[in-house]
Amino acid sequence: MANVGGEDAAGRRSRRQRADDALTTVGDAPDAPDRLRRILEQALVFARAALAAVYTLTDDGELLCLVEWAGAPRTQYGLRDSYAATGGSVVADAHHTGRPAYLGPRELAERAQSRRASAGDFHLAVLPARGQDDGGCLVAVSEHPDGFNAEDRDCLDLIAHALAYPAPVQRTEVGELPSNAFSLAMDTGRVEVGDDILDLFQIAPDEFDGKVETLLGLTVPEDLPSLMSVVEADHMSIGDRELEFRVLQPKGPPKWLRLRGRLLPGGEGQPTRLSGTVADASKLRSDFTDVARVQRLAASLATAGTVRDVSQAVVAALRTPLRADRIALAELENDRLVVTVLDPPEPESWPELWRTEWRTEWPDAPVRAMPTLAAALREGRAQIWPAGTPLEPALADVGPGGLAVLPLPAAGRMAGACLIGWDAPHHFGPDERALLTASAGLAGQALMRAHAFDAEHELVGMLQRQLLPRRLPQLPGAEAVARYLPSTAGLELGGDWYDVIPMPDNHVALVIGDVQGHSAAAATLMGQMRTALRAYAAEGHPPDVVVSHANRLLGELETDLFATCAYVDVDLEEGTAWCVRAGHLPPVLRHPDGATDIAEAEGGPPLGVMTQAEFPMSPLRLQPGTLIALTTDGLVESVEADIDAGMDRFARELARSDPAHLGLVADALLGNARRSDDVALLLLRYDGMELRPLRESWTVWRVPEAVGHARRFTRRTLRSWGLVAETDAILLVVSELVTNALVHTEGQVRLDLTLINSRLRVAVADTSPRSPVKPTSIGWEATGGRGILLVEAVSATWGTLPVSGGKQVWSEIQLNR
């Protein structure tokens, strides 16, 4: 068994010697354009650094400016582009005194050197650079709990002596560009481009307008975020950049291009410029070294948000260069190893024990079943077993030709392990050992951060789901589906919501809305607004009144947030709808013939902006088969297209859908949704009711014969409907409910009769909010209270519900038909 990274003297000499050899190799090419970065990369491998950077003095001697860095993004640790040479920073002190400084989290917090100092999770080293007389500093960051040990400091000292760097590049006048070069002014977006680059983009030189947006528009949309991080100054820092992206071709697949550029600080009155080259990546020789792979791994882990992202980044960084046959990465949870990524993913590629523990997507197995692995985790060092080493079957079958186990340390504990196996006998060279050791430390720290992110994200998702409907109601003559996608950009709660509210008389209210911002306050307000709209709708108010009440309520909640909302009241019997918009997107209608249109629904202001506001109602006419689609701006608005173009695209995608399968339609519409914002989507397909109820209404006037008039109206209606058998029972219910309304309330009384199938509904509405109370007992001498008992006795069911301006008492009677 070979042990990587031993602590004995021979091991120390070996690491220092390997670093010295690597620096000598880099020094043999003094004119290499990336020589400085390659020197810094040695700190990532041999000094266990997460980041290494070099600062040098400007010509006027006033600033120490960043000229190059390698590893994780410098903003992750609060490092600046420059420090005042006469200031009190650690960089300035090391430059003046000529002595190295090593600071832990406590010292960083005391000096307030970093915006992240309060996190207490990294160490900082600053060494004077010895390679040039005019001064400069090497800055390195370590995330290991014990910081830089003696070996690490020896290697950093070697690297500081090897540094010979240029002064900060000053802008020169742009002259004739090489054919493969470009120069971009970061303030205006104007770009000068060589003819070879225009040829790669298939643009004639006389047709190019000099705008960087023209070139970005020809790239594959999925590659735009990485390109925007380069061409937007806010995302850049001084130094070299390299990335690959795809450009669209008139025929055939997109072409891969490689951009290499450097951000050059502008002089007085001059803009910062990005200068570099673009070449056909398929014609370039791969010059990836193991050091470069560590740098790429560090960069990818810095942006990995979840445990799965971290695992996939590690597998992508290691499998190809190591020519491994299997890689597994797993988290350590108590005494079990929970696998997060397997490559290859097929169960038959892994040992029998792993297959028997394959409970979900990936297996999880007890560590005690693999004692050799347990020992490696306790020791906490990367270990390698060559072909033929006797191991338990659960490990031997992972790598019969060689096995490497990388414990992933983080914050004083083991976060997990990475297992790498080969089928054919494999020779482990020193470069591979260095790559494995460096990767283990990076992956462990990233895994711990991602695990915390996953836990918080799950909590956020749970809270979000609790604020949205658990399920949508079954509707007569219609079907509704909804989708919600939380944002993956950070852990903030979103304010998007939707609701489907069944109402009396076969009406249904569709609601979708968006509270301003992404925060706990926005989510809380979203829950309040959803509850308020549901309550106002249940009271029977028309749509404009419902939205007006919600607007007034939001204005009284003393919040600085506002909300947008679209409310659609659909009459499922008549196939009509009324739409009210409060600063929200209009509905999109897909008609039975496949044509779509964006409803021309007049809108009012967002909720909470004006206390007194008008919210006009706009009619919508529906035919059986019409699809109503409501969404939030997260689905249709992006940096590439404005909201009108997004709505047009949304309408076109809806036209191509098959409304017979609403769930598939919703999934397809969300297929290209951006995840930088949360998204809500609500769809309703109106099919029309096969059997429409029969309805009649009567306004009960307050005259002595009012109850008799109501009875005669009921008898006439029943006769016209062909109902004679249950007339006496129905008339008894009408008499009691109308009498109660006339005696115990004031104002208007209305009688509604509804027949559907074999059930008759008698409903009496009045202007009093008080519901009738069923008496618990009635004595012989009592003069009232028996009416409700009689209604209950002859009804299949009865109850009360609030309506606009009062209540409705109803009774349903089962008919023998």
UniProtKB/TrEMBL annotation:
InterPro entries: Bact_Sigma-Reg, GAF, GAF-like_dom_sf, HATPase_C_sf, HATPase_dom, PAS, PAS-like_dom_sf, PAS_fold_3. GO terms for molecular function: ATP binding; kinase activity; metal ion binding; protein serine/threonine phosphatase activity. It comes from the Bacteria. It is an enzyme of class 3 (hydrolase). Keywords: ATP-binding, Hydrolase, Kinase, Magnesium, Manganese, Metal-binding, Nucleotide-binding, Phosphoprotein, Protein phosphatase, Transferase. Its EC number is 3.1.3.16. Residues 1-31 are annotated as: Disordered. Residues 306-457 form the GAF domain. It catalyses: O-phospho-L-seryl-[protein] + H2O = L-seryl-[protein] + phosphate. The keyword Amino-acid biosynthesis does not apply. Pfam families: GAF_2, HATPase_c_2, PAS_3, SpoIIE. Residues 478-686 form the PPM-type phosphatase domain. Coiled coil: none annotated. PANTHER family: STAGE II SPORULATION PROTEIN E, STAGE II SPORULATION PROTEIN E-RELATED. Primarily acts as an independent SigF regulator that is sensitive to the osmosensory signal, mediating the cross talk of PknD with the SigF regulon. Possesses both phosphatase and kinase activities. The kinase domain functions as a classic anti-sigma factor-like kinase to phosphorylate the anti-anti-sigma factor domain at the canonical regulatory site, and the phosphatase domain antagonizes this activity. This is protein-serine/threonine phosphatase. The lineage of its organism: Bacteria, Bacillati, Actinomycetota, Actinomycetes, Kitasatosporales.
